[in-house]
């Protein structure tokens, strides 16, 4: 057999294989049956050519003409099914082709079929109609409002046009011209592209498949060139030696050669994917040197913003109370500032199992399942939950995980310009960012702990100096002022007495500042024992009772039968007093202060993202809520920084000391605030047993527990 005979036989086999693969698919539509008919007709056309050249029988020549006549009819029907026309707009080309079908079949079966004129007419009919069909497909692509449909049709038109041009030369044998069968292979490639476009819903995957084919072809030519060079320059006499040397060269050069070929072809053919890969690589390099969370967000947005593949990017991190995600950085508009964790529960549950969720794909799967009356509950729940993402609800959601499976952040990426914007490989590429962000968050926590440790060390040294250098002189100043105030040398003028009172008052204030600094730098360990939280709250409010007036309303919402917490009673009382006094100060002369307790289940995240290092089965909350003016974001960021205060006479150590006490007990202090409405400070402590568990209780606590809860009253500070 010559080259043409072997080529047509191989093309017929491939076309039959494609036909069978289409018919074996589980879900078939009209377009699939038309495609299988078109592939089968092409297979029979090539098979008839091979039989004609092999047996030199007239019947196979006539069948070749018959299958050639049927080819444009099936092609036009397939093109119409791939891109249907709007209702009420019949295709003039289809009507023309249908009118020509019967005359062409008669001509192919008539005795005049062997005449050059008849063959020329059939030749023009076949390739003219196929070219017209491709041109109509191209016009539909241009008028399509969907970029995905437009790109898909343009791809088919390009491959089909190449196949048609080369097949025209390949078909010249039918009118007596002898040329190499260069178009047969491209015709089968076009058929393969049609089949893949029907099988792959995602256009980008189709591009990726063709790209891999191009890469493999280019790599094969490079490797074949290596072997050809050995054969050419060494000679055929040492063929075995040539094969061994070529194999060694191929093994040595294969990996670097493949890498270079892929890079060049991706940079030329898949420019956008190449840009995305460079952007991700840039983000990786930037994140390696990042310790601060704000700097991390800036690095991600700067790197991804240079890619032309993304129109929207949003980085969310969980707030300290663990109830919502807050937007840290974003590209594009429409990203909500905060997202409640409860509303994202289906997405978060899915992200605990897989690294990413492609919402657009799940939405399509859910719609297909509903059309088959087989609802996909999980996909429906995720699609419903994605509505809270606003304009990001069709993007790719990456889960940022802390130690274990806890989701501490979300990275959402989207390209609104095209449907199914990211291929499977591109999604895997983007998934690399999530673990890097997790590492940066963990490093940021470690860095925060190191800064806290260094600050405490410096504060301890300063406190030791203060105790020696300040407290002793303060005592002398206060003693001297008190002696003068006693009037041992006679009565003092009223003005002098006022000044001495100011000196004593300021000395006492400085002494409290020094004492607070010592308490913060060198906190006492206390005597942590299992406590009844409600009893401590009641006792604390009894101690604060003398400060009550009729200006501020104090309400209680204490949940009964709470589990106990292990903490020093006096230290916990100190924390509660600080929070209550701060709430009273925030409200001024009027408002409502609510003190509540309740049980919470699940893990928590400490202030500023500090890992508390524990995950008990339940927690106990003590909340102090005021109706003041709220806290501004600038103040909120410095709320627990030592010596930061908004009070004219405050030391700035009350909340810092309270945080140290609570963290030492394994808990955290959470803050939620809204300017103009008020703030809530919540102390969260790990439970050590059930409320019914019998534990030894200090006498003071026992008395407080037996005392009745304070009635709602008014108080000021």
Summarize this structure as a short list of keywords or feature phrases.
Beta-Lactamase; 5 domains; six-stranded mixed β-sheet
- Order of strands in the sheet with most strands: 3-2-1-6-5-4
CATH architectural grouping of the largest domain: Up-down Bundle
Instruction: Tell me the major beta sheet.
Output: 6 strands, antiparallel
- The CATH top-level class label of the largest domain: Mainly Alpha
Distance between the termini: 105 Å
Strand content: 5-15%
State the helicity in percent bands: 55-70%
Shape: elongated
User: Count of helices?
Assistant: 23
Helix- and strand-based class? Answer: alpha+beta
CATH topology of the largest domain: Rhopdopsin 7-helix transmembrane proteins
Describe this structure in words.
The protein has 717 residues and is an alpha+beta fold. It has five domains: 3-199, Rhopdopsin 7-helix transmembrane proteins, CATH 1.20.1070; 215-269, no CATH class; 290-442, Beta-Lactamase (2-Layer Sandwich), CATH 3.30.450.40; 446-521; 529-715, Histidine kinase-like ATPase, C-terminal domain (Heat Shock Protein 90), CATH 3.30.565.10. Helices cover 59% and strands 12% of the residues. The protein has 23 helices and 14 strands. Helix 9 (239-269) crosses helix 10 (271-287). The N and C termini lie far apart (105 Å).
Quick recap of the structure?
With 717 residues, this protein is α+β, with helices and mostly antiparallel strands. The chain folds into five domains: 197 residues, Rhopdopsin 7-helix transmembrane proteins (Up-down Bundle), CATH 1.20.1070; 55 residues, no CATH class; 153 residues, Beta-Lactamase; 76 residues; 187 residues, Histidine kinase-like ATPase, C-terminal domain (Heat Shock Protein 90, 2-Layer Sandwich), CATH 3.30.565.10.
């Amino acid at each position: 057999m010559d080259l043409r005979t072997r080529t047509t036989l191989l093309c017929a086999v491939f076309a039959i294989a494609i036909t069978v693969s289409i018919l074996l698919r589980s879900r078939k539509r009209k377009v699939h049956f038309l495609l299988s008919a078109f592939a089968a007709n092409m297979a029979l056309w090539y098979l008839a050519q091979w039989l004609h050249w092999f047996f030199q029988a007239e019947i196979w020549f006539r069948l070749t003409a018959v299958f050639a006549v049927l080819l444009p009819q099936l092609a036009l029907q397939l093109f119409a099914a791939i891109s249907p026309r709007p209702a009420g707009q019949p295709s003039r080309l289809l009507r023309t082709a249908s009118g020509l079908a019967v005359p062409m079949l008669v001509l192919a079966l008539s005795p005049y079929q062997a005449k050059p004129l008849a063959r020329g007419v059939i030749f023009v009919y076949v390739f003219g109609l196929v070219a017209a069909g491709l041109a109509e497909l191209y016009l539909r692509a241009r008028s399509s409002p969907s970029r995905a449909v437009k790109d898909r049709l343009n791809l088919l038109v390009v491959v089909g046009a190449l196949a048609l041009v080369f097949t025209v030369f390949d078909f010249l044998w039918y009118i007596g011209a002898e040329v190499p069968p260069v178009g047969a292979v491209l015709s089968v490639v076009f058929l393969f592209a049609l089949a893949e476009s029907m099988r792959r819903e995602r256009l980008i995957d189709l591009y990726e498949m063709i790209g891999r084919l191009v890469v493999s072809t280019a790599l094969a030519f490079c490797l074949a060139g290596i072997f050809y060079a050995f054969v050419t320059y060494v000679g055929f006499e040492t063929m075995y030696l040539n094969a061994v040397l070529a194999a060694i060269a191929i093994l040595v050069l294969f990996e670097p050669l493949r890498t270079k070929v892929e890079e060049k072809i991706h940079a030329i053919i898949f420019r956008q994917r190449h840009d995305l890969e460079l952007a991700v690589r840039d983000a990786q390099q930037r994140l390696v040197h990042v310790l601060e969370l704000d700097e991390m967000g800036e690095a991600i947005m700067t790197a991804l913003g240079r890619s032309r593949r993304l129109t929207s990017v949003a980085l969310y991190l969980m707030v300290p109370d663990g109830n919502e995600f807050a937007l840290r950085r974003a590209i594009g508009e429409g990203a909500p500032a905060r997202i409640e964790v409860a509303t994202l529960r289906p997405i978060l549950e899915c992200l605990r199992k897989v690294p990413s969720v492609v919402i657009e794909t799940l939405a399509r799967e859910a719609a297909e399942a509903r059309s088959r009356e087989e609802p996909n509950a999980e996909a429906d729940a995720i699609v419903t939950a994605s509505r809270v993402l606003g304009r990001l609800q069709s993007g790719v959601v990456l889960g940022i995980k802390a130690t274990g499976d806890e989701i501490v952040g979300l990275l959402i990426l989207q390209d609104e310009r095209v449907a199914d914007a990211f291929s499977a490989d591109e999604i895997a590429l983007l998934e690399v960012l999530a673990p890097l962000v997790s590492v940066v968050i963990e490093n940021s926590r470690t860095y925060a702990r190191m800064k806290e440790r260094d600050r405490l060390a410096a504060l301890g040294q300063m406190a030791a100096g203060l105790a020696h250098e300040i407290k002793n002189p303060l005592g002398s100043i206060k003693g001297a002022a008190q002696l003068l105030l006693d009037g041992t040398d006679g009565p003092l003028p009223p003005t002098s007495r006022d000044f001495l009172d100011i000196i004593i008052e300021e000395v006492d204030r400085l002494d409290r500042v020094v004492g607070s600094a010592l308490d913060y730098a060198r906190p006492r360990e206390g005597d942590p024992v299992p406590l009844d939280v409600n009893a401590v709250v009641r006792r604390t409010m009894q101690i604060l009772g003398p400060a009550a007036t009729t200006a501020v309303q104090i309400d209680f919402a204490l949940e009964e039968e709470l589990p106990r917490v292990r903490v020093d009673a006096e230290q916990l009382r100190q924390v509660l007093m600080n929070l209550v006094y701060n709430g009273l100060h925030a409200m001024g002369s009027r408002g409502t202060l609510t003190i509540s307790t309740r049980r919470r289940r699940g893990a928590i995240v400490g202030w500023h993202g500090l890992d508390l290092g524990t995950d008990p089965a339940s927690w106990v909350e003590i909340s102090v809520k005021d109706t003041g003016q709220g806290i501004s974001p600038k103040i909120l960021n410095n709320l627990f920084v030592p010596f930061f205060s908004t009070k004219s006479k405050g030391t700035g150590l009350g909340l810092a000391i309270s945080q140290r006490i609570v963290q030492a007990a394994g808990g955290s202090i959470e803050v939620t605030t809204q300017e103009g409405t008020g703030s809530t400070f919540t102390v969260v402590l790990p439970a050590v047993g059930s409320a019914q568990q019998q534990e030894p209780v200090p006498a003071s606590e026992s008395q407080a527990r037996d005392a009745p809860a304070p009635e709602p009253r008014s108080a000021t500070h």
